[in-house]
Amino acid sequence: MTEKLTICLVGPKAGGKSSLLAALTECVAQGSFGYAPRLRPAIQPLGEKDFRAAEAEMRPADFLAHEEGDYERLQRDFAQGGVATDTLDTYEYYFRLTVNGEAPPAILTPGPWLLEIVDSAGEVAVPPNGVEIAILDDVKTKLARQLLACEAIVLVLPLVRLEDSLWIGALTRLIDRLVIAPEKKLRRLVVVFSHYERLFVRLGPSAFTYACDPAVARHVLSRALRRAQWLERLRALETPNGGARVRFTVASAYGFTKRFQNPNIDPHQPGERRFRRAGLEGARAAGEFWRPFLTAEPFLYAALGMDSAFTFSFAQLDARAAGNDETSIID
Amino acid sequence: MSSPVSANTSTAVEAAIDIRRLHYGKLVDATTGAVPSQSGYEVTRRSFDLDPSLVGHLSPARLIGRRRFDPDAIETSALRSGCFVARTTAYDATALMRARFRPEDGENGGARRHQQSSVWVVAFDDWRRFPAACLAIAAGHLRADPDLAAETAAVRLAETPSRWRFQNLDVDRARAVLLRDAWGCDMLEFFLDAASSDAAACLDFDARDFANERDFLAAAGFALQSLSSSYPRWRDVSVACGLAYPAPGVCLRYSPDHALPGALSDAA
């Protein structure tokens, strides 16, 4: 049996949507997620043709053939500093997800999963105030259609003071419309706070140790969401009429360096670049120190509906907020 | 290697074309060239009388005939200045586009890159009558430079079309130049072959044929100027420089990175 799922990535511009997606397969390959290792998920990019034909017939001539697809291009652009996704279209990427280890039968039975992940520029769904956005108005229509037809939404927000951002009004409006849309098929919505590594830049080699503590992540989420007015609107999605489950998590596409454990942002490079050995080029240079952190979490939850140590429900965050000050380890 | 060619000749008559503009990308700071944090993708400049229904046909991806315009679409040698495409699109309009990716923290920065495109729109009839002038003007003045955040939207989005006056190239003179060099014969033969087919086709030139893009565009202008206005595939004609793939239609392409000189191939 194969289940097809569509997941829409939305969020403000420069929030890290494309980076999160670019780091997905590497995160799964390195097991750098909060699920038990015995789950043993595997994910591989597909072409659209293979996604459309669930049981694609492969000709012998194609068996060893490999054509660089959109996802490989996205990963290459990400390794070179990234390219801002334009507002001229929405872009679909396709994957096959399998779970090869232990999981409850209710989780495993529908698999393997064929995922269609829709990426779009932040300016389309969550535009900043007062900007004339797209050349193509039909892009908004297309994304709206995809949002209403998808089974899961991954909402990517940068870890900033939400109340001060220029896009918070647009985000609230989007959530409102999602809540009241009767024709939506939404089953899961994951709110991801990106750029998680930046909270730990002063901790040096201890950074990864702290980042790996789910209690720290839960505390960070509670703090980030403390004044979020739109949070209450999101709760409406979980009512019996809403029909969807909501989770919160954190992620870092750059992650933490292998061996050294510090946040993987090289302060000596222009722009934002990951650490790499001087004089080394190509895939080895890009991957030698790269360990993305939890970037698979939102997609695995969106597909499987299975919680990890780093996905938090409203109930968990509410409980945390109630006893916040007594157990706080950072403030 | 050909010598540079010019659209100005002594036997020419004066003519003029109106050019409308559409810029897409991000606004930048005038001093640093960096994209301010609040700036996102938008139409940053537009002629006030540009037909709104045409705007959707002027995205870089549509003009290069691909689903997506990404850095791979631009040849390495053209990454900084951007690729160039001229082709006729909907509503009897011909678009001349320069598009590239530039770092968000300024021209020499290392941050993530954003798309920046400048599209000129001329009437198809002007393109058919004055292709050499259109390409010569574009070669000299069409740049994918970002607009400045300091300039008000009222000014940027209500620009008056620019009128360019020039000495039109005499057809006999154009043909004489074409028949003098091998590239000219190749181009004429290419258009002749394409006339009897509906298929897409591309004729490639590289740095061994022309020293730079400007020389190629001048040569392409001569070839197109020599075509009769009744040429059956005028609407399919496209010219591309620094583009990693052939542009749609009957394409003359300058590909500095390309290894094979003057290779004739059918586009997919």
Protein topology:
The complex is a heterodimer of chains A (about 325) and B (about 270).
Chain A: E1 3-10, H1 17-22, H2 24-30, E2 41-46, H3 48-52, H4 70-79, E3 91-99, H5 105-108, E4 113-119, H6 122-125, H7 138-149, E5 152-158, H8 168-180, E6 188-194, H9 207-211, H10 214-224, H11 230-235, E7 245-250, H12 282-287, H13 297-304, H14 314-322, H15 324-327
Parallel strand pairs in A: 1-4, 1-5, 5-6, 6-7
Antiparallel strand pairs in A: 2-3, 3-4
Helix pairs in contact in A: 10-14
Chain B: E1 13-25, E2 42-46, H1 52-55, H2 60-64, E3 83-88, E4 93-103, E5 113-123, H3 124-129, H4 131-141, H5 153-156, E6 162-168, H6 171-180, H7 182-195, E7 201-205, H8 213-225, E8 237-241, E9 250-254, E10 264-265
Parallel strand pairs in B: 7-9, 8-9
Antiparallel strand pairs in B: 1-2, 1-5, 1-6, 3-4, 3-8, 4-5, 7-10
Short description:
The complex is a heterodimer of chains A (331) and B (268). With 331 residues, chain A is an alpha/beta fold.
Which tags fit this structure?
heterodimer, A: 331 residues, alpha/beta, Rossmann fold, 7-stranded mixed beta sheet, 33% helix, globular, disordered C terminus, B: 268 residues, alpha+beta, 10-stranded mixed beta sheet, 8 helices, 25% helix, 26% strand
